[in-house]
Amino acid sequence: MKLNLILIPVESPEKGADDLRAKLGAAFCGFFDGLTKSAYPMAGNEDSYSLPLDLVHRQLPGLRQLQGASKEKAEKNLITMAARLEDDPLRQEEVKKIIADDLGHQSGVVNQAIRVKRKTIRLKRRQEEAEQARKKCQTSRGGRGEFLVLPSEENTSFCETAGALYPLLLKKGNYYRQDRSVCTLHRVRENYVLIPMTPNQLRSRSEKLDVTLMRYAYINFVKKLVQSNMKHDEANVLLEAEEAEILPNVRGLVSYPVLTVKNDRPKIHLDGYDEYSEILVKPKQEMPVKPTISQAVDTLNELFKDYHFLAPSDKSRAMAMFLTTALTTGRVMQEEVPMFFIEADKSATGKGMLVDLMAAVFNLEISYVAKHEGRGAGGQDESFYAALARGNPLVLFDNWRGKLASEALEMFMTCRSGMVPIRLPFEKYRGVDPRYFTLTMTSNGCELTPDQANRTIFIRLRKQPEGYRFPEYPEGSLLEHVRANWKKYLAAVYAVGAEWINRGCERTNVSYNSFTGWARIMDWIVQEIFKLPPLLENMEEEKKRVTSPDMTFLRQLAIAVATRHKLGTVFKAGELSALAFEASIVIPGLRKAGDDDAAKKSVGMIMTRAFGENDTITADIYKVSRFVKQVERKDGKGGSFPSKMYVFELNSPATNTAETPPDATEVPVRPVDSAAPDSPVNPSKPHEQAVDEGTADKSEEESAD
Question: 357 and 479 in contact (C-beta within 8 Å)?
């Protein structure tokens, strides 16, 4: 028997045969005859995977022409098909290609939609299985009410018990899941926390579910249900059961309203669990009246008005840091996010306060990563995991010095699977979503690996001049004012986020390593809404500097020179090494601290590598010049030898947009030895000078750079 499958084209005015007959009238017969001629011949050996895909390929011309609601319905059906094809990856890739190429969607968006749909399908299947298990394990027994049958060797499996237990926990409320860990919500003073459940806690809590715990047992060779307690090993297995997936998964617990989306429109979630963002908001919050977009921009600019940014683009990146937390927490933006590196030339510049302001706007605590040397127990990777485990979306590497090299951080920044496994001492592995966290770092001089620099956004600050008057508020400082009025500032942030959503989630075309999606969104917002410079301006030069130990050292040295009001002074390598010791600056390559000769040689080699064939180089806002002069010997043998000298100055305004640092008063170039006042050094041509620096001994000649 031959069977042909008649396909009604997706672009038809109606989808059913009866509806088409009513719509077309007398023309229906001719239309139907045409369909029979192009019918799909059934061979009889089609499977549930190949048949739907073959039918989709035959409908491709019509799919490309769909618009509006019809196109949206077709997209949803194809997403569902791809999600159900998870066991057949080759055909799943075919469906993905159709959605991306023929319906015009980005591959990343398609993959995310399929993951969400697959999760929904799995959850529904788990719920159905749990309901069947509940009916089997939970029945009525006289006047004793419902009971839960615990596992027994030959009568009840762990899956059946778990299938009945977790619907009870879900119904009871206050039970959640973080990846594979079952958690409960607790209030600790004024804060709420999610705490993983232990086997003993499950044993005691299962007795408070309004059911009687029973298990099958043989009494006088007769199988009976008898009341029993849950055993520790049973509780341990039940906590690992897949049936726990019916509990709501929590990416994070926050104490501020969350901006999310519903039906492609912005929505602010005020209380409880939000299914789309998987965020739990506790306690319930209220929001002020939404400001206009111009009011929101003015409100947020107020946060930065007293900051001295090195360049206007640094303000763009500071604004992007605040917006990132707003858009990632509620899954408005589902992109990988770089780390924010806040760097200053001096202490007390406001690096930490910038992060504190951000925490105040979002009414959250900061999870600090303590700096530890080494690996393993107590190492910096464990410290990083502990910060992630606290669940606060804002993580801070505070006042980091030296070289940042963390395998845990690199794995976190490059994760593309959706979850990063972390483990703390005496705890099992659990997963955290890297897109939930905003990583920040403050430093006056930190060296990054090239890979980490490519995953970092730099915000450069300068200290305000001495005597600068910071404004006072009724509450005190700006930080205290923001803490008292955090909802006003949060409403401004969300007004900007809502504006971006309502304007179609626009993007620019910039590229930034693995974070291009994030960069394009933020670049559009800071330019179009805040009228600020491009997000990535001056970024490449900064990355090159922070990845070079020599340039990092040179910048720290320039800051020390400026702080001591010695810009324009002529230095020798030995004097620079002494200055480094005085300022507690680590000299790269120096193995033994306190060895003056070794320090002098190390500084000389650093300068040789940093300058190369150049006579002038820049380090941040500073210009360093090198020239050679003849120095007389101190050993009495007469003669002279060439010695390299160095002068630190501020960059010219033509090449630097920053204002003069307050403590870096520019002075005329002068020799260190003021005994030669009649021989001034011309900073524009230092190599032509012959300043008398006195005589030098043989060790100076041998180690001079």
Answer: yes
